[in-house]
Amino acid sequence: MKNLKQLLTLCFTTLLLCAPAYALERGQIDFADLSSHYGEPKVEINLSASLMRLVGSFADSEDPEVGNILSNLESIKVRVYNLNGKTDKANSTVDRVSGELRADNWETLVTVNDNEENQKVRIFSKSTSNVIDGVVVMVVSPEKEGGEAVFINIVGEIDPDKIGKVAESLDIDIN
């Protein structure tokens, strides 16, 4: 189960990194056509509700609480693009999508603007009552050769009180 743990670590670590789009119901983001600007993504991940339930059932044998949390996720979408030195378009996309998410009552969790390095980071969440319905992460970074943009959308019931349990089981230090 070490590979499962690595996959789950990657998924939750992704929350700390980056994603653009138009807001839809229950935390879903419809990714804008970024390929027209940057070409095909170098990484594309689409995990559906049925696949999340399958992963949750495997995790259930090691830790039922973690398995339950994963089973409640509806989807995880990740796109990573090479920017080929075109960070301005990626940054304007982050700004545009951020405005759309705020207009749709998404909560801003993290905003980083490093104009000197031409880097942006945005993390948003959408909640119903005390349960998170979705998380969007967008990161534009010129640090790698030519720059890189990462866009992530995680949808499903995410109980904030249980995130620590998942992070602990995946050996993620959140302190």
Question: How does this structure look, described?
Answer:
With 175 residues, this protein is an alpha+beta fold. It is built from six helices and eight strands, in the order αββαβααβαββββα. A hairpin with a 5-residue loop joins β1 and β2. The protein is globular and about 45 Å long.
Helix content: 25-40%
Q: How many DSSP helices?
A: 6
Mean pLDDT, all residues: 74
Task: Report the biggest beta sheet as strand number plus sense, adding barrel if it closes.
Answer: 6 strands, antiparallel
- The number of E-state strands comes to 8
Order of strands in the sheet with the most strands?
3-4-8-7-6-5
Judged by helices, strands and strand pairing, the structural class is alpha+beta
Distance N to C terminus: 25 Å
Radius of gyration over alpha carbons?
A: 16 Å
Shape annotation? globular
Helix-strand pattern, N to C?
HEEHEHHEHEEEEH
Low-confidence stretches: 1-8, 10-25
Strand content: 25-35%
Brief write-up:
The chain is of the alpha+beta class and 175 residues long.
Keywords:
single chain, 175 residues, alpha+beta, six-stranded antiparallel beta sheet, two-stranded antiparallel ribbon, 6 helices, 8 strands, globular
